[in-house]
Amino acid sequence: MTVSLSFAGESLVPLACGGLYWPAQQTLLVADLHLEKASHFARRGWMLPPHDTAQTLAMLIDAVEATGARRLVCLGDSFHDRHGPGRMPDAARGALTRMIASLDWWWITGNHDDASAGTLGGRAVAEVQLGPLMLRHEAEPGDIQPEISGHFHPKVRIATRLRAITRRCFAVSGTKIIMPAYGALAGGLDCGDPAIARALAGPGAAVVREGSHLLSFPIAALQTADLA
């Protein structure tokens, strides 16, 4: 069963992997892949599991195949730093370049990677308007145009009587969607953090895909629960 989110008159499908599919535009949106994060830290002597790029690309390939997307938009910080494309293992580079060649591929520039991902193909832009929606890396609270962005890596902590569960989520307000980080090692920021509240520019909800359902939690209620 397809579950969709109505936003700015458009029907968008949040995916469990953290992507957002826009059927009317045959477009898959993802944010904050942070490819080659492990190799970035390895060069500084901090050893992380080295397969983050392969894992993230495998998830991305699965999402493209599942949705049938013809366009893919990466909403910034696709690499953990601007030298990341040069550190990619040959197998990962080959898989990514084949994907880029088979799709209408857009790189939105981020604060980590700037336009470096564009060296692999596709087109790199600071921001772009697609239909009624502005696509950019970081939300602009003062812009009232409906917008989809990344940057903040929202996650939500859901407490039950028996345990607390932390999940990546979409932070959604009347004019903003902030995408969860797609990268395997990207981490997250609690959606109740003041930085996310400011970026949403209004009352917001944490939206989680759970099987064939979308779960929505008012962020203000989550903040109140944390204070209780």
Describe this structure as you would to a colleague.
The structure is a single chain. This protein is an alpha/beta fold and 228 residues long. It is 24% helix and 30% strand. It contains six helices and 17 strands. It has helices spanning 37-42, 52-67, 84-87, 90-102, 194-200, 219-227; strands spanning 5-7, 10-14, 20-22, 27-30, 71-74, 104-108, 123-125, 127-130, 133-136, 147-149, 154-159, 164-168, 170-172, 176-178, 189-190, 205-210, 213-218. The strands form three sheets. A seven-stranded mixed β-sheet has the order 1-2-3-4-5-6-7, covered by helices on one side. Strand 13 and strand 14 (176-178) form a beta hairpin. Helix 2 runs parallel beside helix 4.
Q: What order do the strands of the largest sheet run in, or round the barrel if closed?
A: 1-2-3-4-5-6-7
Proportion of beta-strand residues: 25-35%
Helix share, percent: 10-25%
**Which of globular, elongated, flat, extended, rod-shaped describes the shape?**
globular
Largest sheet: 7 strands, mixed
Number of separate helices: 6
Rg is 17 Å
The chain-level mean pLDDT equals 90
Strand tally is: 17
Alpha-carbon distance between the two ends: 37 Å
Write the H/E string, N to C: EEEEHHEHHEEEEEEEEEEHEEH
- Would you tell me the structural class of the helices and strands? alpha/beta
Low-confidence segments, ≥5 residues, pLDDT <50?
224-228
